Amino acid sequence: MKIHCSCGAIILDQTDYLSCKAHIIGDKTYFDFLNAIDEAIESKDEDRETLCMRVRRAETSRLAWECNTCGSLYLSDGNGDLVEYRPVNGKANRVFDRPRSKVSE
Ligand SMILES: [Zn+2]
Prior knowledge:
This protein has helices at residues 27-42, 48-58; strands at 2-4, 10-12, 21-24, 62-66, 73-76, 82-85. The chain is an alpha+beta fold. The strands form two sheets. Strands 3-4-5-6 form a four-stranded antiparallel β-sheet, with no helix packed on it. The protein has a two-stranded antiparallel ribbon with strand order 1-2.
């Protein structure tokens, strides 16, 4: 996928683990998603693959990308279109590029 930013740059989305891409979950659906995870963990069902697929289907995020040149954010609107938001400071703020957290043992 290529997004042509209004600044002229191109945002490429051709692999996983992109530092300029995010999966955004609204607050109303975030707790439903956590409940689906809890339900899968607490289930007595032996079919772990089915449980994992149930959690993946419950994840209702939308995608977002940040332009590395001007910092504009492009959010999918759920209808196949992108909505652009521009940062007031006019620069790339790398808002989605956070260090990967380690799961504590
Ligand atoms: Zn841009």
